[in-house]
Amino acid sequence: MNASAELLKELRIERNAPPPPSSRGKWWVLALVALVVIAAAAWLLGGRDSAVEVRTAPVIAIGNTAASASVLDASGYVVARRMATVSAKVTGRVLEVLIEEGMRVEEGQVMARLDPVDADAQLALASAQLAAAHSQIASIKVQVEQAETDATRLKELVDRGLVSHSQYEAAVAQRDTLRAQYVTAQRNAKVAADSLEIAKNGVDNTIVRAPFSGVVIAKAAQPGEIVSPLATGGYTRTGIGTIVDMDSLEVEVEVGESYIGRVRPGMRVEAVLNAYQDWKIPAEVIAIIPAADRGKATVKVRVALREKDARIVPDMGVRVSFLEAERADEPEQPRGVRVPQGAIVSRDGASRVFVLQDDKVALRTVETGIALGDGRQVLSGLGAGQVVVLDPPPELKDGDAVRVAAPR
What we know:
Helix 3 (117-159) packs antiparallel against helix 4 (165-204). The longest helix has 43 residues, at 117-159. The protein has helices at residues 2-10, 24-50, 117-159, 165-204, and strands at 52-58, 60-61, 70-80, 83-86, 92-97, 104-105, 110-114, 207-209, 214-219, 226-227, 241-244, 249-256, 268-273, 280-293, 298-305, 317-323, 337-340, 345-347, 350-357, 360-365, 367-372, 375-380, 387-390, 402-404. The chain is α+β, with helices and mostly antiparallel strands. The strands form six sheets. The protein has a six-stranded antiparallel barrel. The chain has a four-stranded antiparallel β-sheet with strand order 2-17-22-21, with no helix packed on it. The protein has a four-stranded antiparallel β-sheet with strand order 4-11-9-6, with no helix packed on it. It has four domains: 52-62 and 333-404, conserved putative lor/sdh protein from methanococcus maripaludis s2 fold; 69-81 and 246-323, Efflux pump adaptor protein, beta barrel domain (Elongation Factor Tu (Ef-tu), domain 3); 83-115 and 206-242, CATH 2.40.50.100; 117-203. It is 29% helix and 33% strand. Residues 82-228 form the Multidrug resistance protein MdtA-like barrel-sandwich hybrid domain.
């Protein structure tokens, strides 16, 4: 009986129970997510379709370096022969800094300005002193002219016996005194003018300019800091920034004493940067430093790079191979790199190629050489290992997005 009562209770309908959750809200959420996914896919496909489809080819190094064997290999670093930490000539508070790392500056370009309050005050004082000196000259000049007139008149009266000779002598003495004062006033004006020029230089010294053209590699000061050309300690800065002349880059390597006899000035060298293993840079020995390091038993050798490129930066690691001299009976082979003929186009009257860089193209001007089969020699503007666009369409321009076509 109790079991039957319990079963009846389970079959009873609860009028006040909450209704079951509706599935309509879930369908709205799913529909909204689907719309977002479809819109994102359409945007991605549209952006991809806007990229120009191109075919590419690698840039291949050519040259006769294979004909010359390496007599010695060494490691070193790229260094700058012209690098400077630029500072102000005077101690002062930085008013503004106009440089940033990576920025190129030209010779004489303003890099920073110091607070010119003291220098301006000194300039105003020197200008006032010069004006006072000129006023004194004008006053004494009038007195000299009057004294000369009096002396001339008394000379006539003395000759006629109307005045005593002592009065005339007193007038002459007064005239000579005023003349001496006039000369002194002129010299004082010259000193004041020189002081004004020094004050102007003091104002100019609050402006820090680049001593040569180069690239900023370090920014050392901020507005509000105190800078000084002397190392005074504490929180005083000694420089505004460091600039490097990228045209002065070369390689320094240390060669063991036992092998330095194989190296000579003017020797051909092949340099390979650690960052770009496939790029062989032609170089030559500049000089052998006539000093040895007794601790490491090495001699320093300077090597000049024949190619200049923005990828070469100071303190990069580099491996160099010193090459033996070419034999006269071996024919000279073309130098530079080789690209397909279809990659070279004429734009604005110059030979140019499109280089692939991160799904975009960069237009480069190149110097072409002789024809090499179905390709052409490029003497400058490209490096081995880069990728160029084949048969670029006329509407392709610098900076356009591209996608590489699948190989046929």
